[in-house]
Specification:
- Helices cover about 30% and strands about 15% of the residues.
- The chain is built from eight helices and nine strands.
- Helix 3 packs across helix 5 and helix 6 packs across helix 8.
- The chain is elongated, with a radius of gyration of 23 Å.
- The two termini are about 35 Å apart.
- Bound molecules: adenine.
- Adenine binds next to strand 5.
- Specifically methylates guanosine-37 in various tRNAs.
- It is an enzyme of class 2 (transferase).
């Protein structure tokens, strides 16, 4: 996968040289190219922003600079373009999977109040352009959001995770555990500072281990993400699930209200 990033702070992307993403680049799975937006600004101060039409606080990124930068990086190609912004559609595991299947992604990082909207209109006529938010909070710019998205996408690329199955059990991956958070995990020693590993995990009884893990997943989902629990599809719940939810005084939606 090719991944281009345009930003006025290319230094932000140093983490892409290390760990999982660094290895993916060494192995040739990921081709990351970071560009300094100011290279396409022509005045002595390399200005990239100006005051907003209509008034208001802050500054808006200028369309001409972005236009030249994007034309150069895109060339004759057609990457899928992502613009990180708190006003965008939510970044989810589903979107990460969709983007992981693309051959070429281009991230355009805005600072200040954002990029002049005509830039998205102009390139949206030629490319698939998505404005994407990583959550309901406001960052100082899109750079950290791009790091988040790049890592979530990068770990899904074939050959990036050591264990090919590591991504399968993720809390938000499709499948049986969909929309259930993962429960607690333990390793050796069996007792640490008086805290014991739950005996069932040492029992060697795979069925009981699986049931215990599912109970823990349900409990954690109810406690930490009640809105995910409320969206559980009753058809994916067995009688043990139902008994546990009842015990925890959790009301399932009526059958006909699912979906
Ligand atoms: N830029 C600033 N805040 C952001 C957010 N929450 N998601 C994506 N980009 C952003």
């Amino acid at each position: 996968m090719r991944l281009d990033i345009i930003s006025i702070f290319p230094e932000y992307f140093a983490p892409l040289d290390v760990s999982l993403m660094g290895k993916a680049r060494e192995r040739g799975i990921l081709d990351v190219r970071v560009h300094q937006l100011r290279e396409w600004a022509h005045d002595v101060h390399r200005t990239v922003d100006d005051t907003p039409y209509g008034g208001g606080p802050g500054m808006v990124m200028k369309p001409e600079v972005w236009g030249e930068a994007l034309d150069t990086v895109i060339g004759d190609g057609s990457p899928r373009m992502i613009v990180p912004t708190p006003s965008g559609r939510p970044f989810t595991q589903e979107l990460a999977q969709e983007l992981a299947a693309e051959p070429w992604l281009l991230f355009a990082c805005g600072r200040y109040e954002g990029i002049d909207s005509r830039v998205m209109a102009e390139y949206g006529a030629r490319l698939r352009v998505d404005e994407v938010s990583i959550g309901d909070y406001v960052l100082a710019g899109g750079e950290v959001a791009v790091l988040v998205m790049a890592e979530a996408i990068g770990r899904l690329l074939p050959g990036v995770l050591g264990n090919a199955h590591s991504a399968v059990d993720d809390s938000f991956a499709p499948g049986a555990m969909r929309n259930l958070l993962e429960g607690p995990v333990y390793t050796k020693p069996p007792v640490w500072r008086g805290h014991e590993v739950p005996a069932v995990l040492l029992s060697g009884h795979h069925g009981k281990v699986a049931r215990w893990r599912r109970d823990q997943a349900l409990r954690r989902t109810l406690a930490n993400r009640p809105e995910l629990a409320a969206a559980l599809d009753p058809e994916t719940l067995d009688k043990h699930d139902r008994r546990l939810l009842e015990e925890l005084a959790f009301r399932l939606p009526p059958e006909d209200m699912a979906h």
